[in-house]
Design brief:
Helix content: 10-25%
Number of strands: 24
CATH superfamily of the largest domain: Hexapeptide repeat proteins
Number of helices: 3
CATH architecture of the largest domain: 3 Solenoid
Distance between the termini: 56 Å
Largest sheet: 7 strands, parallel
CATH topology of the largest domain: UDP N-Acetylglucosamine Acyltransferase, domain 1
């Protein structure tokens, strides 16, 4: 459901279920449908200075750029969803979180209804869990991380801040993925492995040993490389 909203007329009434979306690109569109399917929140509109004001994204009005966050706040909106995925450049996603925090917004975790999260797993704020993903027992997902469609996060895994797991990525048990690391589509990480801060694992790669920070593992590769 999309609520009617005029940012020029402050209501000052706090709405605990109202959301604004920051970023109306492809990842943002996925999140619009996710939130609608889950039914826990309702959308107000999209913040995106690249899109014409008063245009729409999947039926949501574009409210304007970041300067409109203050108007939203005056109207009782306190929660936002980060629609910038940051693939290849996680600092962009981190920057959006900083903008939202400075404007006074909280970022709730959002989970597609087809995903399965075990009761003992823990999700921090800003986490996004897309369709058909499984998060197993005693796993912990750090602030702002994205678990895309069909991801498997096995028992006792620990993910840091703004980690991004692309569709079909699979983590075996007790894997550590440090802040801002990215794991590509259908990549596999074996048991008890640590993926270092800012590392990038390519699509369909297989990781059999720890990956140092900022390391790039090429698509389809087996890590560690043979000498």
């Amino acid at each position: 459901m999309t609520a009617s909203f005029d940012p020029s007329t402050p209501s000052h009434e706090y709405d605990p279920k109202a959301l604004v979306l920051y970023g109306g690109g492809g990842h943002g569109k996925t999140l619009i449908d996710l939130v609608r399917a889950a039914g826990h929140f309702h959308w107000i509109g999209v913040i995106d200075d690249r899109l014409p004001r008063e245009s729409t994204v999947l039926g949501l009005p574009v409210l304007g750029g970041p300067d409109q966050l203050a108007e939203c706040y005056k109207n009782g909106i306190r929660m936002a969803v980060n629609g910038v995925g940051g693939i290849g450049n996680p600092s962009v996603r981190q920057h959006v979180f900083e903008i939202l925090e400075q404007a006074g917004f909280d970022c709730p975790a959002v989970v597609h209804p087809s995903a399965w999260i075990e009761p003992s797993a823990r999700l921090e704020g800003g986490v996004q869990v897309l369709a058909m993903t499984y998060v197993s027992s005693d796993a912990a997902i750090g602030f702002g991380s994205v678990l895309n469609a069909g991801v498997v996060v096995s028992h006792d895994c620990r993910l840091g801040r703004c980690v991004n797991l692309s569709p079909g990525a699979t983590l075996a048990g007790n894997v550590r993925v440090e802040d801002y690391a990215q794991i590509g589509m259908n990549a596999t990480v074996n048991l008890d492995i640590t993926i270092g801060r800012g590392a990038r694992i390519g699509n369909a790669a297989t990781v059999k040993a720890d990956v140092p920070p900022e390391t790039i593992v090429r698509a389809g590769a087996i890590w560690p490389p043979k000498r």
